[in-house]
Amino acid sequence: MRLTEFKGKSNNLQLLKFLAAVFVVASHSFALSAGSSENEWFMKLTDGQMSLGGAAVSIFFCAGGYFIAKSINRVQNGITYFKIRILRIFPCLMVVVFLSAFLLGPMVTEYSIGEYFKDAQVYRYLLNGVLFLQHNLPGVFQNNPYLSTVNGVLWTLPIEFLCYIGCFMMWKFKFLEKKRCGGSIPLVLLGTAGIYLAAGEAGMTALISTIRPMLLFYMGILFFVYRDKIVFTKPVLLGHIAILILSIPLHMVNVAMVLCFPYVLFYLCFAVEQVSDKVGNAGNISYGIYLCAYPIQQVIVWMHGGTMSPYWNMVLAIPFAIAGGYLLYRYVEKPLMNFKRRSLA
């Protein structure tokens, strides 16, 4: 089948988003509980080239590129586009950041309550709500094995919002039109090379880790633009999977993920039988799970005295993260989605 032949909502994608959020929790259990992710399953499987959390984030960014391009192509208006994106990303984020600073922090800090609230870092932490990253709260998780970071997943959100801006610029300069989209490829390659070289020169290895998710977002955009050219067949699928597997001993997992993973992902989303709406609805809480799981896991480690089995952390954290994700969806995301539909009607 061709990608353009698929109509309606992909329940498979929704399910994959839910599973990806759970995979992030499972992946972080190793580093947060033991101080290192070297024993994490996917790290072992890929010879240290990618964690299960990294693979999960790849799902979010690649699918995001496709559907964000679809969104701006539909609304054809920059203000409406950013309004939708802001309502999607910021309200839940602000709630989690606020609760972390003013509920979680006072409960677990080693400082007295008075000392805690006198510390300016408490209020600087709120900058996370507008994508200016602040990792720590005073006296919080200082004895946990993997740094004292309160919510380590927030680093992806500024990258995601930059991708939103990049998609808008592509639309603005008509690179989302098939006849001109090819012109964006050398620009993206030059930008990628520039980031890689500049980060290497400056010793900013963390910046290099942003390249894969951004390129996967771009690949998602390309799949949308050329959707009438994308044909899903089992032999091609197996070929992409084979390349992904072969990339492990060749130490080229990052390259193979960008070039081959999108086809595999979209095949699973669009070219196989869809799960039911009831199962697919699990994806509604994926963003909430993603936002609240890390601090929940840190609290669990803290309650166990700073060290514990990663598997036990996983077992305890996943139900609480799912519950937190549901509450965020039910009381923050869903009402705002209804407001968005009314305001855009």
Short description:
The chain is an all-alpha fold.
Q: Total number of β-strand segments?
A: 0
Mean pLDDT: 93
Q: How many H/I helical runs? A: 16
User: Nearest-angstrom radius of gyration?
Assistant: 20 Å
Give the % helix.
over 70%
Tell me the distance between the termini.
33 Å
- Overall shape: it is globular
Report the sheet with the most strands, covering strand number, pairing sense and barrel closure.
none
Hey, roughly how much beta strand do the residues contain?
A: under 5%
Low-confidence stretches: none
The sequence of SSEs as H and E is: HHHHHHHHHHHHHHHH
Structural class: mainly alpha
Give the tags:
345 residues; mainly alpha; 16 helices; 0% strand
Describe the structure.
This protein has helices at 11-34, 41-45, 52-75, 78-108, 113-118, 120-124, 156-172, 178-181, 184-202, 205-208, 211-225, 234-246, 253-270, 277-280, 286-303, 310-344. The chain has 345 residues and is mostly helical. Helix 1 (11-34) runs parallel beside helix 15 (286-303) and helix 15 packs antiparallel against helix 16 (310-344).
